[in-house]
Write a structure and sequence with these properties.
The structure is a single chain. The chain contains 15 helices and five strands. With 361 residues, the chain is mainly alpha-helical. The chain folds into two domains: 247 residues, Fic-like fold, CATH 1.10.3290; 69 residues, Orthogonal Bundle (Arc Repressor Mutant, subunit A). The strands form two sheets. Strands 3-5-4 form a three-stranded antiparallel sheet. A two-stranded antiparallel ribbon has the order 1-2. Strand 1 and strand 2 form a beta hairpin. Helix 2 packs across helix 4 and helix 11 runs antiparallel to helix 12. It is elongated and about 70 Å long.
């Protein structure tokens, strides 16, 4: 048993990798099925005519679910309106979700020039999530409590201790190739959450690291997956298994949870992708038949890029003059393809079929 006392800073948090068998038969079997599901999702995305088409929508869904874990709740409707409306975002929760999505994009952009996860990158991601310039925790007294207010964990304290733990984590992520990448994914996620390096934004930063890691390991060429959806549906189990690693070194249970998450979200991602593609095909055929003058492949892609669109988007895509595209949108609404909504002086158009797929449990 490790030297862990709930209400004392866990400065003796062991470094990675743990000195225990991480490749049990059960873990290795699950690693195979999780890897296979992830590879199928990767293939389904990269084989699309436009693989990046749904990225905005998928990353916003990930941002929404990840923020929801922290009790930052917004609806899909509020979120997607906020993204495309000219009107300033007034909903603070929607604003936080969009900041998360921007932080994820920043992380992915940084990997293009330097495919490594570093402490500095973690700090940059957290700063974008929180929209501030805070850094590694320096003030003592950080504790994590349960719903009854009881302290269940006190993370390492002292900037030098925290940076030392992060340095080991960085080295493990980028240099240690002794384990299957998905097993490493579970270890790095636990370790980051256990170090808890920031005053706020740790959970969301840690979940962005999962996506960045899948990218640098070439497990997902385009990280179009939202892992947080699984955590939201299995939230109590998530925190329980995290604690089990800390309190009793139960790594197997935690690794199995993360592998289940990867497999479930990959399969769900494939199903959702198929639903969207089928909907696109149906709508494309219907618009071609009923509104041949308005139809174009670019129009269909625009209607499925995000649930809401507006006249300026069609103009920017070169689909016609303001008058022409305005008539297109009116006709699309009259035929039931879109539903309009006024937001301030602006009119937005909802692709209700796409929104229904995103809302489906």
């Amino acid at each position: 048993m490790r030297d862990f006392i709930r209400n004392e800073p866990y400065n003796n948090l062991p470094i990675l990798p743990p000195n225990t068998n991480l490749e049990t038969t059960e873990i290795l079997r699950k690693t195979i099925t999780a890897s296979r599901a992830l590879a199928q999702l990767n293939g389904a995305i990269t084989n699309l005519p436009n693989p990046r088409l749904f990225l905005d929508t998928i990353h916003l869904q990930e941002a929404k679910a990840s923020s929801e874990i922290e009790n930052i709740i917004t609806t899909n409707d509020e979120l997607y309106k906020s993204v495309i409306a000219d009107k300033k975002i007034e909903n603070p929760n929607a604003k936080e979700v969009i900041s998360y999505k921007d932080a994820l994009w920043h992380g992915l952009e940084q990997l293009e020039s330097r495919p490594f996860i570093t402490t500095n990158l973690c700090v940059e991601i957290m700063q974008r999530i929180k929209q501030n310039t805070s850094n590694i925790r320096t003030t003592p007294g950080t504790t994590l409590s349960n719903t009854k207010g009881e302290v269940i964990y006190t993370p390492p304290s002292g900037e030098s201790v925290i940076r030392e733990k992060l340095e080991n984590l960085e080295k493990f992520i980028n240099d240690d190739n002794s384990l299957d990448p998905l097993i490493k994914l579970a270890l790095l996620h636990y370790q980051f959450e256990a170090i808890h390096p920031f005053s706020d934004g740790n959970g969301r930063t840690g979940r962005i690291l999962l996506l960045l890691y899948l990218k640098i390991e070439n497990l997902l060429d385009i990280p179009a997956i939202y892992l947080s959806e699984y955590i939201i549906q299995n939230k109590l189990e998530y925190y329980k298994r995290l604690r089990q690693v800390t309190e009793s070194e139960n790594w197997e249970s935690w690794i199995m949870y993360i592998l289940d998450m990867v497999e479930w979200t990959s399969k769900r991602g494939i199903t959702r992708l198929e639903d969207i593609l089928n909907s696109m095909k149906t709508v494309s055929e219907e618009i071609q038949k009923e509104l041949p003058k308005a139809y174009s492949k670019d129009l269909i892609e625009l209607l499925y890029k995000l649930p809401y669109t507006k006249r300026q988007h069609l103009i920017d895509a070169g689909l016609g003059t303001a008058k022409t595209v305005g008539n297109y949108l009116i006709s699309l609404e009259e035929k039931g393809f879109l539903k309009s909504v006024k937001l301030g002086k602006e009119k937005l158009y909802l692709n209700h079929r796409l929104m229904a797929i995103l809302e489906k449990e």
